[in-house]
């Protein structure tokens, strides 16, 4: 065999990447505001995946969901909840009302608004707690979000703001009041959330080209929930 021949080890990679134990750590460059919006699928998925990446480095991550309270086609316990529960340093809360706002499913708009308002109040508490914590230091992986987090994901808050379930001005003020080292991730909405895009450091428009729902597919276990 010649010296330049490709071996099986070359194809597989001679030095596979080995996982390391997850130990509490502190990020060196967190503190940006991210907005993920658009009519395409994947906004929440992208945010949760980024949270998984941060948690894998030992950073404290928390996700607070608006709007997503379950429907007749989606189980209450979704796959992401089980996965997050199994991952050190990653936690979640859900403030959504059953059904989907203005989806003609018989749910009450006032209840949607009440649950969204409660979620927003909870978001302000977590942001304030992060301001009291030392985010330049590691945080206990099993500690409550009230003791501080390095990354906070507010899933569907842009959708809630666009629909008037929470005051867009209040969302803007929350973003502007966040502590310097808190990475704040906001998702949701098919309409551009102008109330936060001007202050965000990263804005991603997730655009739809096609979606299986248009051909009659409902949400599928393992991909949508």
Automatic annotation (TrEMBL):
Keywords: Transferase. Signal peptide: none annotated. Residues 1-25 are annotated as: Disordered. Residues 9-21 have a biased composition (Basic and acidic residues). One of its GO terms (biological process) is cobalamin biosynthetic process. The keyword Zinc does not apply. One of its GO terms (molecular function) is ATP binding. Coiled coil: none annotated. The keyword Metal-binding does not apply. This is Cob(I)yrinic acid a,c-diamide adenosyltransferase. The lineage of its organism: Archaea, Methanobacteriati, Methanobacteriota, Stenosarchaea group, Halobacteria.
């Amino acid at each position: 065999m010649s010296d330049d021949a490709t071996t099986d080890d070359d194809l597989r990679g001679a030095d596979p990447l080995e996982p390391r134990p997850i130990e509490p750590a502190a990020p060196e460059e967190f503190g940006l505001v991210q907005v993920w919006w658009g009519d395409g699928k994947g906004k929440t998925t992208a945010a949760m995946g980024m949270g998984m990446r941060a948690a894998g480095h030992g950073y404290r991550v928390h996700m607070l969901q608006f709007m997503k309270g379950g429907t007749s086609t989606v189980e209450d316990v979704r796959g992401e909840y089980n996965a997050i529960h199994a991952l050190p340093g990653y936690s979640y809360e859900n403030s959504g009302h059953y059904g989907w706002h203005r989806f003609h499913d018989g749910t009450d708009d006032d209840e949607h608004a009440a649950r969204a308002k409660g979620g927003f109040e909870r978001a302000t508490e977590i942001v304030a707690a992060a301001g009291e914590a030392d985010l330049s230091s590691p945080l206990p992986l099993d500690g409550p979000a009230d003791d501080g987090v390095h990354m906070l994901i507010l899933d569907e808050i842009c959708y809630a703001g666009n629909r008037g379930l929470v005051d867009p001005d209040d969302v803007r003020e929350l973003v502007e009041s966040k502590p310097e080292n808190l990475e704040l991730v906001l998702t949701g909405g098919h309409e551009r959330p102008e109330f936060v895009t001007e202050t965000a450091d990263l804005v991603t428009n997730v655009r739809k080209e096609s979606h299986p729902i248009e051909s009659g597919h409902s949400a599928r276990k393992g991909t949508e929930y």
